């Protein structure tokens, strides 16, 4: 699945996927134009993520 978004939309998605929390997600800087890839298990829980 490919999701494209930026700024607060991506922070909200990362918060839902990783459970970072409101305070942590406010400090999160996601670079523009750099894909962030998540690896998920069979139950769609995140195993790891990396920037390409």
TrEMBL record:
Domain of life: Bacteria
Family matches, as InterPro entries: His_PPase_superfam
Protein's name in the database: Uncharacterized protein
């Amino acid at each position: 699945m490919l999701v494209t978004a930026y700024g607060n939309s991506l922070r909200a998605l990362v918060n839902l996927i990783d459970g970072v929390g409101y305070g942590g997600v406010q400090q999160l800087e996601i670079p523009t134009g750099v894909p962030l890839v998540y690896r998920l298990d069979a139950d769609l829980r995140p195993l790891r993520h990396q920037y390409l």
